[in-house]
Amino acid sequence: MVGPLSNSVFLNRKTPPRLLTLTLLTGLSALTLNLMLPSLPQMALYFDVPYGLMQLAVSLYLALSAVVQVVIGPVSDRFGRRPVVLGALAVFLLATVGTLLAPNATVFLAFRMVQAVVTAGMVLSRAVVRDMVEGPRAASMIGYVTMGMSLVPMIGPVLGGTLEEAFGWQSTFVMLLVLGLVVTALTWADMGETATTAQRSFAQQIRLYPALLGAGRFWAYCGVATFASGCFYAFLGGAPYVGNVVFGLGSAQVGLLFAITALGYTIGNFLAGRFSRRVGLNRMVLIGTMVTTAGMLMLFAVTALGLSGAMVFFGLQVTMGLGNGIALPSANAGILSVRPEFAGTASGLGGALMIGGGAGLAALAGALLPPGATEMPLVVLMLACSLASVLCILAVIRRAARATLRAA
User: Fold this and answer.
1) Cα four-point dihedral sign 399, 400, 405, 407
2) Residue 304: its pLDDT value, please?
3) Torsion over CA of 355, 360, 365 and 370, rounded to 10 degrees?
4) Residue 179, number of CB atoms within 10 A of its CB
5) Helices (H), strands (E): how many in the chain?
6) Which of 97, 228, 352, 377 could form a disulfide with 69, with the two C-beta atoms 3.0–4.6 Å apart?
């Protein structure tokens, strides 16, 4: 009696989730990453460690997110989206309690890494979309999901900085705990199963990876997503230092300026949702990456001329948000289109490559900003990432053109 009842309630509900549920699942993952960013310098003082060590709360979180996604994708293809998401949320809640009780930086960073399991919500939200629709329609829906989600990081750093100044850095993790409980309850009540679980073992699912890794189109789309988002992750890794140390801003001010990037991302996501089906995946990605590159070139020029300042540095990040908001939904839809029958696996592996690259770039940004550094090393790193994303989408377009010629 108990077994069938549990299976019915926990695994086999077939009602598709509402757009709000997918948006909040994705938003919780984004908020977990960026809510505490303005507090990093104060957390370093609290634990009496260098800022570079405390910055590992970003890069290690991203690194474990990449590892989690390698496993989450095939597991969800095998056992379903619903049980995997609910299990990940339960682990996230326990890890958040651990960050609040941590006696030192080492224990804090350990629990912070475990918090990265919440990335499952972001990865599997994309897979759920692909379960329901495909191609440009998937890019459009992903754009709308991430448009709603982008409102969370827009207010997250602002809220995090304000909470830190008023109540201390621990208050940001209390908020994550409360919001995690709310999202878990909503997911339990609303998110039915959308995947047709594969009759394969986990080992057989893992063996699907070589087929994906051997596809040039998969690599090219992953390259776009990795470098485009890597520009943003490098910004996350270095902007708190630039704001606090280079420009002498407080945590709340830095948090407020982070909202400029999120505003651009929201607008870009709206444009992706509105025009992806009409313009097509590859052209949307090309437009987005070129918008970001143009903004980073402008920022490099004004910084080299000594004309930069806090408003110029943070203000021009709106172009990065806009460009990524346009490009990333279509790039992610492209990743899922290579092997659509294994959307969870493709989403997990693509996300792992994207987040793993982001972790490395966030750590590199911290390493490039030792005491006394200016913002220029971070600007150069972001410009290099945006240029690389343009080259990757041009490779996709070139491969598509060759395939068309061969077919003719």
Assistant:
1) positive
2) 93
3) 140
4) 18
5) 19, 0
6) 352
Tokens 């490039």 locate to 368
In the chain the first and final C-alpha atoms are separated, in Å, by: 61
Q: What separation in angstroms does the CA of 145 have from each of 86, 87, 150, 261, 351? A: 19, 22, 9, 17, 16
The answer to whether residues 151 and 268 touch, using CB atoms and an 8 Å cutoff, is: no
Other residues' Cβ atoms within 10 Å of the Cβ of residue 379: 24
Residue of 108, 111, 128 whose CA lies nearest to 120: 128
Six-digit token string for 369? 């900003």
Amino acid at 162: T
The widest CA-to-CA distance across the chain, in whole angstroms, is: 74
d(CA 357, CA 338): 21
pLDDT digits (tens, 9 = 90+) for 197-225: 555 565 666 666 676 677 778 888 889 98
Give, in order, the Cα–Cα distances in Å from 31 to each of 25, 34, 67, 192: 10, 5, 19, 24
CB atoms within 10 A of CB 231: 29
| 255-306 tens-digit pLDDT | 778 778 878 888 888 888 788 778 888 899 999 999 999 999 999 999 999 8
Separation of alpha carbons 204 and 345, rounded Å: 12
Tens of pLDDT, residue by residue over 175-196, are: 999 999 999 998 888 777 766 6
Residue 227 has a CB neighbour count (10 Å cut-off) of 26
